[in-house]
Amino acid sequence: MRAVLQRVTDARVKVDGQLIGQTGKGFLILVCAMTGDTEAQAEKLAAKVAKLRVFKDDQGKMNLSVKDIGGGALVVSQFTLAADLRGNRPGFSTAAPPAEGERLYLKFSEALRAEGLPVANGQFGADMAVSLTNDGPVTIWMDTDAL
């Protein structure tokens, strides 16, 4: 699985102008299941996200996890993280098929909740409007093949 984490002070997602998910301080997580990904990878990614120390401590050092600060997560599916950029028009054939992608996206969100995080979600497959206030900015790309 692939994910882009953005440390945020707040983030929201709307579908057809209606707010469907939001978080305060924590992460906006854009996530993509790749062909061949498993539930174990979704759980591994969630565990890594929950423990990742990128929030500032009293000394201003990135030394705290989202759990340490009592933060939350807004998780949004984003199949375009599977983009193949060899040409000028990206291809997405390495993204998991939609039914499998949705299942693993939901499994990832469930695994984050099991780690003790409050989690809000976007709507899989929908045309979403995502807004955020990036804190730092801190943006981190993760791939379970590299963890």
Question: CATH topology, anyone?
Answer: D-tyrosyl-trna(Tyr) Deacylase, Chain: A
Provide the low-confidence segments as ranges.
none
- Estimate percent helicity: 10-25%
What form results from the Cα inertia axes?
globular
Query: Which class in CATH terms?
Result: Alpha Beta
Main beta sheet strand tally, sense and closure: 6 strands, mixed
CATH superfamily: D-tyrosyl-tRNA(Tyr) deacylase
The CATH architecture category equals 3-Layer(bba) Sandwich
| Strand proportion | 35-45%
SSE pattern, N- to C-terminal: EEEHEEEHEE
Explain what you see.
This protein has a single domain (2-137), classed as 3-Layer(bba) Sandwich (D-tyrosyl-trna(Tyr) Deacylase, Chain: A). The chain is 20% helix and 41% strand. α1 packs across α2. The chain has 147 residues and is of the alpha/beta class. It contains two helices and eight strands; from the N terminus they run βββαβββαββ. The radius of gyration is 15 Å and the shape is globular. It has helices at residues 39-51, 98-114, and strands at 2-15, 18-23, 26-32, 53-56, 62-65, 72-77, 119-121, 128-143. The strands form two sheets. Strands 1, 2, 3, 6, 7 and 8 form a six-stranded mixed beta sheet that branches. Strands 4-5 form a two-stranded antiparallel sheet. The chain starts with a strand and ends with a strand.
Task: Summarize this structure briefly.
Helices cover 20% and strands 41% of the residues.
